[in-house]
Amino acid sequence: MSEDRPSGQGNKNWFDKLFSALSGDSDEPSSRAELLEFLRQAGSRLKLEQDAITIIEGAFNISDQQVREVLVPRSQVTAITLDQPLDEYLSVILEAGHSRYPVIGENLDEVKGVLLAKDLLPLLQSNSSNTPLPFTLQDVLRPAMFVPESKRLNSLLKEFRDTHNHMAIVVDEYGGTAGIVTIEDILEEIVGDIEDEHDADDEDDIRALGEGRYAIRALTPIDDFNERFSTDFSDEEFDTVGGLMMQSLGHLPSRGEHTEIDGWRFTVLNADNRRIRLVEAERHTSDTDTTA
After folding, report:
1. In what order do the strands lie in the sheet with 167-171?
2. What does each C-alpha distance from 11 to 101, 130, 199, 218 come to in angstroms?
3. Residues 169 and 279 reside in one and the same domain
4. How does pLDDT run across 55-86, given as a tens digit for each residue?
5. Is residue 73 part of a domain?
6. What are the residues whose beta carbons fall under 8 Å from the beta carbon of 1, sequence distance 6 or more?
7. What CA–CA distance (Å, rounded) separates 214 from 65?
8. Is 123 among the domain residues?
């Protein structure tokens, strides 16, 4: 019977190895990179799902990432003005489909608080009973949470959990608003893209933004882009618009990075540490005569 047991001489099981690693055994992983590699190898032997390994890696990575790497930039923030009429900001909420909105004064550098869409539900009761409820936007504002661009994501995630906040206003070194960050932005760095019912459908691979700009899903085939805009981008090495960007830049770009290819400027609107998700494409006006 004894021969069925591991001898202990160079024949440790994965649990023994992990315990040794955490105990500081010099023969076992001594750095985070070594530990991740060990987990990848152990995962294949134990038939762990790749998604599980990816989540572990993502959890490690957020300790190195800063808020500035995942924030929604100022130019893409949907905000409500404090003195905005009710019918106007209700239209904004219905169109955007978010659950939280910064409420501002004259501009985004004057954040007065945060509006939760659910706090407007009493208005539905008012309409159904034909009994107007006293309501002002100021009455339902929640305090805004402010964080610096340099804050670590793991620290912010803990703060979100401790304070029960789901969104924070990101401020730059001068005290201005750089953008917003949500708990979903951090979780997506760990588990990957989280899509809800308000995210764009697959049919909206290419969406006009106005003024010659377009929001393009990174997985949009290059053939579809060529057909839409009468361009002639090659798909010999990469099949998608995201791949075209990576080929041009030579690396996986982060949010805000851009590249110019044959008269088009491509900018990353949304990405995580594993892939590009959304790209903005803008045709150069000086080159419009070269495309249909």
Report:
1. 72-73, 177-182, 167-171, 146-148
2. 56, 76, 50, 46
3. no
4. 777 788 888 889 998 888 888 888 999 998 88
5. yes
6. none
7. 29
8. yes
